Amino acid sequence: MSRKCAITGKGPLSGNKRSHSLRATRRKWNVNLQTVRVMVDGKPKKIKVSARALKTLKAKQAI
Prior knowledge:
The protein is of the alpha+beta class. The chain is 19% helix and 44% strand. A two-stranded antiparallel sheet has the order 1-2. The protein has a two-stranded antiparallel ribbon with strand order 3-4. A hairpin with a 2-residue loop joins strand 3 and strand 4 (43-50). The protein is elongated and about 55 Å long.
């Protein structure tokens, strides 16, 4: 399974790691994914959601 948020579609970003001497090597920033149980069509289903999306879902649920 890919490292992608099931709701927002956020995926890993790539860029350069910089050493003290400013040598550049490639690196990856992964998304902060959390496995949560969500009701889909009345049935609980496990999905991977980014932490930001989870925070938004919890805020919307409280209203």
